[in-house]
Design brief:
The protein is α+β, with helices and mostly antiparallel strands and 181 residues long. The chain has a domain of 114 residues: Nucleoside Triphosphate Pyrophosphohydrolase (Alpha-Beta Complex), CATH 3.90.79. The strands form two sheets. Strands 1, 2, 3, 4, 5, 6, 7 and 8 form an eight-stranded mixed sheet that branches. Strands 9-10-11 form a three-stranded antiparallel sheet.
Length: 181
């Protein structure tokens, strides 16, 4: 594992990010994996863009993940299962570094993000039903901007030419993660 990721693991364990209180709301459990890898002397992450024909979150950019199912022993199992279903990454290929702070989302879920490192040569097999595009994002080259999304001004993350806009819960998770680098 690259020393940058080893140091990230130590910081996540030493001072884990705070979760957002649900204020007593009964929310369904979900989790995601922030799959990181090392390329060209910097940390990168895989993000997914959902197809436009999906009922929930069409076209949105997210980390792989989803709702906890009855057979999932823990939320980490949920994140790893969903990552395998969406990207074809086997759980044993993920070196889990820790967790980010959990957060409620408007769809009625309480999402727990995990951070994991993948081998740089991992082969992806995206599920075309759930994934329209896999984005390879250089974390240190993300930039923030204010844009109107769903009739409200929000801070979003952009990369490349600004065509891919990362907002909402995923932007919140990225902001948490980037504080540890």
């Amino acid at each position: 594992m690259h020393p940058t990721f080893q140091a990230l693991k130590g910081r996540l364990v030493e001072k884990p990010p705070a979760s957002i209180d649900t204020q007593g709301l009964k929310l369904k459990e979900a989790s995601v994996l922030a799959p990181l890898f090392w390329r060209d002397e910097e940390p990168w992450a895989y993000l997914t863009q959902r197809p436009m024909n999906l009922r929930r979150h069409p076209g949105q950019i997210a980390f792989p993940g989803g709702a906890r199912e009855e057979g999932d022993a823990t939320l980490l199992h949920t994140a790893l299962r969903e990552t395998q279903e969406e990207l074809g990454i086997l759980p044993e290929q993920v070196d889990v570094l820790g967790m980010l702070g959990s957060l409620p989302v408007v769809t009625g879920y309480y999402v727990t993000p995990f951070v994991g490192v993948l081998p740089s040569a991992v082969a992806l097999t995206p599920d075309p039903i759930e994934i329209a595009e896999v984005l390879e994002v250089p974390l240190r080259r993300l930039r923030t901007e204010r844009r109107v999304i769903m009739q409200a001004e929000r801070e979003v993350f952009l990369y490349d030419d600004g065509a891919h806009v990362i907002w909402g819960a995923t932007a919140y998770m990225l902001k948490q993660l980037l504080q540890y680098f």
